[in-house]
Batch of 2 targets.
Target 1
Amino acid sequence: IFFLNKSTIFCRHYSHSSILNILKTAPLGQQISVQGWIKSLRKQKELTFIEINDGSTCKNLQITLPSNLSKNITVGASISSKGLVKQSPKGQLEISAEDFTLIGECDISKGYPFAPRKQYEPEYVRENMHFRPRTRLFSSVLRIRHAATLEIHNYLDSIGYFNIHTPLITSNDCEGAGETFKIEPDSEKLLKSMAKENQPLHSAYFNKKAYLTVSGQLHLETVAQALNKVYCFAPTFRAENSKSRFHLSEFYMLELEQAFLNNLDDLLKVAEDLVKHVIKALLDRHLDDLQVCTNGKIDHLLINKPFIRISYLEAQQILSTKLNKSSLKGIGKEHELALTNYFEGVPVFVINWPENLKAFYMKQIPENNVAAFDLLASGVGEIAGGSLREDNFEKLKSRLPINNSEFDWYLDLRKFGYVPTGGFGLGFERFVQFILGIENIKDCIPFPRWPHNCKL
Ligand code: 4AD
């Protein structure tokens, strides 16, 4: 009997499981091993109550441990532990642990920036960027980013779009706004060895100036002429001197392009369906993280109505007659926010813009307008922008930046078997900012870059 008991103890099998799986599927009485970071700690005479999180969900798992074993543990430390799944008096699953292993200690007095049970301002959390993923809010933001990314890929795949890897190093400024970052090797020695006679040193590597891309659109347009429905979802870079809560120097953009497209309405439909699909999927499958990020305020996501569609002219009329905010120079951020408020939070497409306010590649339509749109969302303003592309060779040529041979290949597309295309770019961080109702876009991306800030 002694032998049998002993072997039972030694052979006890603990299956390892993530907290997400334990909370979903672990049956009472199952032996489980878990690992994670301690989020809270309550020591009582007999038992210590530890809440751990392993990153798989925003929910913590409670572990009870005999207090005589829990001397060296603190909030923030990482541990592994094993025990039996049981039900707490409040009816929640918890682990009754027999033991634990301290993986990494966390002595807050040695400079760890976050104390237990304290709320911090986003600016303070941002200053401690390397520890920011450990906060409850930011880890939820990261899981939502992941889920939204997957939903974008899934949705576009389901309606026949191909993911194209457009280059990050380019030789053109697609938007023509002069917001490019120039790139060149850091080694002057290398540049000197590569430079040809009479060639400026800064263009020695590629024989021309090269930039980090501001948009994958022009490359996507080339592929749309062969694969029809294409998209890219990649980092883009803008050298804007803006520290505003809506601007980043590096952000992710979902851009799509579709051939055989003659009608702006068809493009608006793709944008609206995509936005609605992602939001619905998040509400259906990631409500816990959404609740954490939005503080439970998800009303703005329950968009059952069709998005509003107004022309630029109508937008200006509403701004001047109804909102007392007339503007001669386009529609600024203040106007964008006022318009979405006016339409009670329903996203707004502003279409048919004056051509002098928009990029050279947009299709001209009567009255000096272009067939373009901006999509405005509550609390953030513009989250996406797109257009039909100019298909007329001469018109396009006349609108190109002067003496710019960089666009020869782009013009060439129009000469050979060209079909009209249209597309748009959705700023991913602005989209996330809108979904989560987050004040500052810098809190929607793992490692934000903005002027004078390139931490980590
Ligand atoms: O309106 P933009 O400049 O459009 C383009 O780049 C087109 N080439 C897209 C296309 O048609 N394929 O940028 C598109 C979106 C904006 O609506 C905004 O959401 C986001 O990109 N965006 C920024 N997001 C964060 N920080 C910045 N500095 C941004 N600039 C633009």
Target 2
Amino acid sequence: AATLFIVATPIGNLGDLSPRALETLREVALVCAEDTRHTRQLLAHFGIERPLLALHQHNEDDQAALLVERMRGGDSIALVSDAGTPLVSDPGFRLVRAARAAGIKVSPVPGACAAIAALSVAGLPSDRFVFEGFMPAKASGRRERLAKLALEPRTLIFYESAHRIVESLQDMVSAFGEQRPAVLARELTKLFETVLDGTLGELLRQVSDDGNQRKGEFVLMVEGAGDDADGKIIEGRRLYAKLAEHLP
Ligand code: SAM
């Protein structure tokens, strides 16, 4: 019977595409991709040529119904995103839901995921964690989100882009206090892979001072709030207010 395969692709190092991912991508009738040009290049690198179809947030609902019909007709389909695991801060949830609702088998071909790769090297408590993905782009929305997380005891995992990393660290210092331990993982599996650890205050200073530390892709992880978080947050806010007086 037809299957919808959810296939993870590398987050940088092409060596991380698994043999089973290659085999699956070779065998399906169609590969659905977030960005077909990007995926065509990836497949070409491995000598794979398959029909590609763009599936992104703007057409996913419409396409899902057509793709379900196609799988009902017997064609297996693979879903990939630009990097890492589909559905994790990437399209795919609607297609998977539609396929499952139609009784079609949905099967994972697991592999890289930036959040899990980052957590695995952070040295932060990893028995329980919360994936927060991308924060809202607007400062007000971001601060609101962070305020709600200030007392969260589990390790927090965020995705962040180069142009917002400093602002986000600033907002975290004010929401969680500058003493909260954190780890910043940058460019994992790539040439400039860097994992910085320290307090939020230290990370903010390092990233502000060194332009190279602001380049690339980031996973930002923050240790959960301890039992005395209330006090620390109040202290952190006080420090931040003092610091803010000296900022332009
Ligand atoms: N689906 C992907 C996954 O499984 O990780 C995530 C896609 S999301 C659109 C892209 C974000 O993932 C980036 O902004 C960054 O926060 C994170 N990311 C992706 N590749 C990374 C890498 N090599 N190093 C650090 N973070 C990365």
